[in-house]
Amino acid sequence: MNHLYFGDCLDVLKELKTQYPQPFIDLIYIDPPFNSKRNYNVLFESMDMKDANAQKQAFADTWSNYNYVDTLNEIADIDKELYTILNTFHNLKSISDSAVAYLTTMAIRIWYMHKLLKDTGSFYLHCDSTMSHYLKLICDMIFGEKNHQNEISWKRTSAHSDAKKYSRVTDKILFYSKSNKYTWNEMKVGYDESYIKSHYRHKDENGRIFRTDNLTATGLSGGGYQYEWNGVSKIWRCPIEKMQQLHNENRIHYTKNNTAELKRFLDEMEGTIITDNWNDISPLNSQAKERLGYPTQKPEALLERIIKASSNEGDVVADFFCGCGTTIAAAQKLNRKWLGADISHLAIRLIKKRLVETYGKGIEHNLKLHGMPKDIASAKELAQNVEGGRIGFQDWAIEVMLNGVVNEKKVADGGYDGYLTFKGADGTKQFALIETKSGKLTVKNMREFARVIDNEKAAVGIFVCFKENVTSEMIKEAKNAGHIKIAGIEFPQDKIQIITAEDLFEGKQPQLPGAAANDTFKKAQRNESKSVSKGLFD
What we know:
Radius of gyration: 30 Å
Low-confidence stretches: 49-61, 528-538
CATH architecture of the largest domain: 3-Layer(aba) Sandwich
Number of helices: 15
CATH topology of the largest domain: Rossmann fold
Distance between the termini: 10 Å
């Protein structure tokens, strides 16, 4: 199984460390929210016909308001040296409380990640220049200075104007290993056009492009082989038998004075070794097929490079700030086992949808979701726990199970709790209102919802509740609303549909006419991958 966790990654890390005392992860990549005091949003299809792209806040980095003292004391109990450096920051007036809060938050999580990483494992931390120097110090303390392998610079954008400073166009990716036995697959990249034009200037009779290399051994340490070849007597690098073989294979180019040179064909070259300056992977543009509308989304090519270099097929790849799931998508594509965690249930929902749309619903059989209700009992517990947790019954039903959007305008009875958008048979954008109720119900609730549907001119109404609370009068009232009508055309589906929590667990979804596709999230590009049949921790 692959695993997807909803919740604070610190809780997930502690749970994994307790459950699996022995390190089991081969590669960890994280791209945590930077200390930039900005909001991170997921884009949704808006119900408002005038606004094609409304924004809904998924989560915000609120480091300036975060009380980190308890976390600092917890670090004191597990790592005295790490506590010492963080407490020093805490006592310095030159470093803001928000910066120390961020570093403390990251430090304890990285500490636990280190404990779960195999001795052969690697750790990549994606950050910007705001905190990269502080984070490197934290990672040096946890992984050991000698295990710092690279500070990679990734050009994430083109040049732009920054007031009174040089244009900032790069992110930093800190690369650490757990030990000196870490997995490493040397990566190469194709030559750029300027290099090819300057070096590969020849073409043979078959149209193959090549450059030439010296075959003489003059000045070569260790000497060479003295003989005459093609009328030219020199000290050659290879014996005459090898020279004859190269000639027979059309791998020798003869100069004007008949001197033999070795042909190095471009189509046989692996490329140049990748350096720590990555300017060949472009950021996602607005037209990219893999773009999902997540502002901090990274290109899959970036994660594919990291995963290929620092893991092998069947290895476990983890991302504890997985956002829209680029690490997971790349790991799945490259036949790795994976686990991801995110504190936003919207992110978890987006990842699951991304995987299904890319690989088909069959991928769900190899995916275990943690932190969400798994049965009716846990759904009822969620409905009763109004104050606790980071997700409520309403959010779970609308955004996780129905792929809808919660209505941010909180209203009393007589409003609606959420909506989803879809395309009608005529191609126009339509929307369905969603109402959720977890307690006892009467026919009055259905009548009020029917009025809201009419007032909002919605095509469909979806009423979510527990099966035990559905009454015959409610069913009759829903049926009285008739069938869905769009652009004067009547469809056989009911205008008001009752979907119980039990139905949701069985995979039931609203019956929508026409294209019937929920367009709340942009679709991921379809892809195929071989499945990894072993269990996650095999």
